[in-house]
């Protein structure tokens, strides 16, 4: 779904906060397509998702209870337990140290995917800059961890491979493979969310009865799966970066 109109939340930002947006864009030398309306839909939706998450966790924190946990607490405890188990299964004993990053990615991508099923909103993840931003942040994160845990020499040994005389062949292949990871993460999330949105809109245009509800359920399923896949791949990359040769 190409961006061709302003959502009401984007219009609100452009009407009242165009100045700060132009100042930030000018700071980085970026020229907006329409300088008088610098806020794009996907940026506005990202901000809205962040606000929703902050408010939701504020409400959750105020209602935390050991004796009488509410439904919201049960949901996030389930998410925490699941992701905690995934970090241990994929990375190992030290996996939970990286749960903060993995959990942040999962919650943000999940909410960004799901917001598209709300009328008058769009999923920001169906616009390439949003998945690309998450992918580049993940790429930088796990490489920084690799250098921090093993040093430059130890980390580059991973790229050389286990057989020293094959290193001249393996090293460029591994470098290209790692550089392709952000592109792979971006295309996977963007393409699946865009396809899900297209399917939902097509069937909404054909009928307003049972069929759209089925495909909205499909959209929810795709949103969950894509958030999970992105997070699991991130954990795999982290595990590869921080693991030592003897492991």
What does this 3D model show about the protein?
The chain is mainly alpha-helical and 247 residues long. It has one domain. Helix content is 74%, strand content 0%. The chain has eight helices and no strands. The protein has helices at residues 8-16, 18-27, 41-62, 71-90, 99-114, 129-160, 167-206, 210-242. The longest helix is centred in the last third of the chain and has 40 residues, at 167-206. The termini are far apart.
How many individual domains? 1
Structural class: mainly alpha
Low-confidence stretches: none
Round the Cα radius of gyration to an integer and report it: 21 Å
**What is the first-to-last residue Cα distance?**
46 Å
Tell me the number of helical segments per DSSP (H or I, 4 or more residues long): 8
| Helix percentage range | over 70%
* Strand-residue proportion: under 5%
Gross morphology = globular
Major beta sheet summary: none
Please tally the β strands and state the result: 0
H-E order? HHHHHHHH
State mean pLDDT (0 to 100 scale). 89
Brief descriptors of the model:
single chain; 247 residues; mainly alpha
SSE blueprint:
Blueprint: H1 8-16, H2 18-27, H3 41-62, H4 71-90, H5 99-114, H6 129-160, H7 167-206, H8 210-242
Q: What's the gist of this structure?
A:
The protein has 247 residues and is mainly alpha-helical.
């Amino acid at each position: 779904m190409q961006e061709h109109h302003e959502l009401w939340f984007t219009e609100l930002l452009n009407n009242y906060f165009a100045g700060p947006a132009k100042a930030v864009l000018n700071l980085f030398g970026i020229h907006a397509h329409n300088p008088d309306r610098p806020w794009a839909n996907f940026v506005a939706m990202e901000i809205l998702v962040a606000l929703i998450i902050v408010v939701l966790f504020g409400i959750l924190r105020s209602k935390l209870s050991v004796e009488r946990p509410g439904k919201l607490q049960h949901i996030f405890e389930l998410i925490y337990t699941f992701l905690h188990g995934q970090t241990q299964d994929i990375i190992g004993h030290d996996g939970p140290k990286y749960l903060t990053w993995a959990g942040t990615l999962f919650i943000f991508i999940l909410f960004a995917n799901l917001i598209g099923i709300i009328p008058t909103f769009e999923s920001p993840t169906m616009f390439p800059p949003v998945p690309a931003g998450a992918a580049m942040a993940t790429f930088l994160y796990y490489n920084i961890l690799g250098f921090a845990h093993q040093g430059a020499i130890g980390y580059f040994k991973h790229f050389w491979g286990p057989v020293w005389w094959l290193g001249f062949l393996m090293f460029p292949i591994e470098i290209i493979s790692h550089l392709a990871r952000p592109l792979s993460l971006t295309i996977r999330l963007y393409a699946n969310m865009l396809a899900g949105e297209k399917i939902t809109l097509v069937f909404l245009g054909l009928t307003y009865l049972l069929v759209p509800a089925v495909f909205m359920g499909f959209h929810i399923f795709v949103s969950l799966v894509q958030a999970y896949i992105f997070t699991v791949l991130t954990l795999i990359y982290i595990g590869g970066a921080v693991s030592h040769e003897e492991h």
